[in-house]
Specification:
There is one protein chain. By secondary structure, the protein is α+β, with helices and mostly antiparallel strands. Helix content is about 50%, strand content about 15%. The protein folds into 3 domains: about 120 residues, Butyryl-Coa Dehydrogenase, subunit A, domain 1 (Orthogonal Bundle), CATH 1.10.540; about 100 residues, Butyryl-CoA Dehydrogenase, subunit A, domain 2 (Beta Barrel), CATH 2.40.110.10; about 140 residues, Butyryl-CoA Dehydrogenase, subunit A, domain 3 (Up-down Bundle). A hairpin with a 2-residue loop joins strand 1 and strand 2. The protein starts with a helix and ends in an 11-residue tail after the last helix.
Length: about 400
Amino acid sequence: MTDLARDYLDLDSLFSAEELGLRNRVREFVQARIKPNIARWYEAAHFPREIAKEMGALGLLGMHLTGYGCAGRSAVEYGLASMELEAGDSGMRTFVSVQGSLAMTAIHRFGSEEQRQRWLPGMAAGDLIGCFGLTEPTAGSDPAAMRSTAVRDGDGWVLNGAKRWIGLATIADVAVIWAKTDEGVRGFLVPTGTEGFTATPIEPKLGMRASIQCDIDLTDVRLAAEAVLPGAVGLRAPFTCLNEARYGIMWGAMGAARDAYEAALAYALERHQFGAPIGAFQLIQQKLVDMVLEIQKGTLVALRTGRLKDSGALRHEQLSFGKLNNVREAIEICRSARTIFGGNGITLDYSPLRHACNLESVRTYEGTDEMHTLIMGRAITGVAAFSPGTAG
């Protein structure tokens, strides 16, 4: 594979030696630990729980947070790690996202010092697992319509409701649950062994098979007063966590796309038909060129967003640009890459279709295409169009 095939615009020159060093360490981990096993894990719908501690040892869990055993890495470094993890599989990057960008960020940003000390060091090490319960069966894109409630009972709280599509819930030690109260939406830390908390895996799935997504049922879950996140009042708090996850997604999607492209390129050079490698044919080269164009552009979008984030200048509307564009383009790249393999492309011997199936889920979570389109539309026009009649 030529240098131009790997990095056409020499984007590596835009990163520091420290950033590239971290990227390469994560790439080596993915190459050694994930890629040799992912087809088997995916087919068996298995998430390897033991990999959490391995990722913790690499400093990947809550890596953008500081203190409490967290690595305190930059946004760009977190993005590069996300890219490499998703080159292995979306489920691996999703684990890091749910653990770090959602559950750990909620505790780090909105929790008490006691809550941080209790949970974050173990979560950073991978000894403890967290999940993030916002989405509900009837409230996905519209979390303000959630039906889960938390009612004061003496000095404590009683939670009732249901959550859906909650990553890691069946293996989690603590759940960050968002519920309506008389004070507005509040966040609660619910140890998953609490009576009335039930998590059930959502099965079968056509994508994200090496990951865990669950239904959660909350039936008269009794919590002490100190279970509430003191700094979280209203939907701004969970949206802050979602924005952290959206940021990682824009990098991760390009990792999946890059892996699909590299697999397709290697196959095109080794597969012979009509007396020549299929990579010598014009239509195959057009597909490969289109992939390179979008991967390089998408990586530039992610990098620009990361630099803005590290400088403190990033606006939340700008996250929608990267999430919408990069996931949408990554799906098309993976689908196109699959066609280069012909019939062989539908097997788990090759990664593109697995990536494409995973990315259909990534396209939906942390904001659908439609929601990010409307977020961008509001930013461009100044007019909200999130519900009928609001566009004027």
